């Protein structure tokens, strides 16, 4: 076909195909291999995928107590029977993390993962992963991490897409402890996929804090958003707000929250994306909550458009609000680990028949893409029979496999069977600590 059609026509035709056939088509010829691997073609393919009329998909993650691992699946976001539309995705990071990763975000088919859910993260534990083409990228340690004591710092991340440069960026906000308080402003660094390196953000950094351990981020309208708080005046008055970061201009901004949220205990708040709407969840209690309110910003950037859209009460206890289906139903987990869809019309609940641990669930919009085709390495599930190794494996992989096979019966139960206890222990201890922390005198250091 390439002998009779101009190169640009061939490129436009191929850019409308799914990623998996394109990976195979690279074997057709050297010219096709080079073309499909170029950043220009990958960006063109991503743009077509985002503008496509095909139904949007949703990526769902949970931790399976039966399999002792994370399980990823893709569902049709608009499907009436969410439970019947799942297609499981091969997970390549088995046995490389205790229980499961924190999912920072998912953009254009790329998932950003951080190993900090069950203890202090490794400085190099940020992963970018494209499940559709089985590519992954481990980010290098940022420069500031070389002189940070993990036990004396707290890190929050954001994951965004710079549309003007077709660049994916990871924003790292690092807070250091001093005199039993955070030192402000924090350090801010950005990893840009195009350059493959970290750089320090220049300009004004807000004297705001993101709540430790419970932080969440939302990327919409070109900005990463976190719920944060700051101290105002000599009376140490605390005020909550939305802190945003424009990933193109690399500048921070603030958005006011409605009064009931501005003075709430910060650890009871969390940012969430409800079908493209920036929203904040207000829990009655973060760890043992039974009730929550969801506030949505109906007109982005207009602080007067905040409205309380939902008030949800669940007798068995609420785990977390994790997102929304295309029909507006809110997805949430119960304390018992069930995935539930809540409809504001009549206050109806539907058990979706999907179970996991309550804090391991993640749901986000998902579109297959070719991102990481050039930058990433092969990411596939490793089985005990595998004899090959990759760049991210430990050098002593044979010993690792022996250790893995020996963790059985009682040992396996002791090591892997306490994920729910670990979730509760981490959240409970952090909630108690922060409840006291927010009542301490505040120290501000520049």
From TrEMBL:
Protein name: F-box/kelch-repeat protein-like protein
InterPro entries: F-box-assoc_dom_typ1 (IPR006527), F-box-assoc_interact_dom (IPR017451), F-box-like_dom_sf (IPR036047), F-box_dom (IPR001810), SCF_F-box_component (IPR050796)
SMART domains: FBOX
Organism: Salvia divinorum
Record-annotated F-box domain positions: 1-44
Span list, region Disordered: 381-417
Acidic residues bias (residue ranges): 387-417
Gene3D superfamilies documented for this protein: 1.20.1280.50
Highest taxon of source: Eukaryota
